[in-house]
Write a structure and sequence with these properties.
3 helices, about 170 residues, mainly beta, four-stranded antiparallel beta sheet, Thrombin, subunit H, Chitinase A, domain 3
Length: about 170
């Protein structure tokens, strides 16, 4: 195995996008490289992490994922429609996440998906539910992780220099 290929204990940076197979549209794309230590923290679905093993800088891989298997089929009972005037103003924006609790005290995140005239649509399904997608990943960096990165599980962001020469790590 190449010393600069993805393996446990390696620091990896990558960019990825999630593409809907049916519409060929990009559902998610990371703008900044995602940095992590392979084998220490799982930042993407295990199926994707397994496919990264053994790959090197410059490799681009595509991993098809059936989100029905990952998240189950869509459950239309998790779609709520409300009169917009019955919803607090801070939740009246598409994309807003709302943490809701049922009568048993269990919580679930719902997302505002659509607003049409006086009606707001709030959906508790995972946004990838019911879709087949392709994770397209481009490997940007592979190197031995430092002990600090292994302990932290990934990239250690340096904070602004506030103390006259001493950097403060952001947790």
């Amino acid at each position: 195995m190449n010393k600069d290929s993805v393996a446990d204990g390696k620091y990896v940076e990558l960019k990825y996008k999630v593409i809907d197979v049916k519409t060929n549209s990009v559902l998610t794309e990371v703008e900044y490289p995602l940095g992590y230590v392979h084998g220490v923290n799982t930042v993407l679905a295990p199926q994707v992490m397994n496919e990264l093993e053994g790959k090197a800088v410059g490799d681009t891989i595509e991993v098809p994922i059936d989100c029905n298997k990952l998240y189950g089929p869509r459950d239309e009972s998790l779609v709520i429609t409300e009169n917009i005037h019955d919803v607090p103003e801070e939740y009246r924006k598409v994309g807003t996440a709302i943490l809701m609790e049922n009568d048993k005290g269990q919580t679930k995140t719902f997302t505002v998906t659509r607003i049409a005239e006086d009606v707001i649509f709030i959906d508790g399904n995972n946004p990838l539910c019911g879709r087949e997608v392709i994770f397209k990943l481009e490997i940007l960096t592979v190197r031995d992780a430092t002990e600090a990165e292994i302990a932290h599980g990934g990239k250690i962001e340096e904070g602004p220099d506030l103390a006259g020469g001493q950097t403060i790590p952001i947790q």
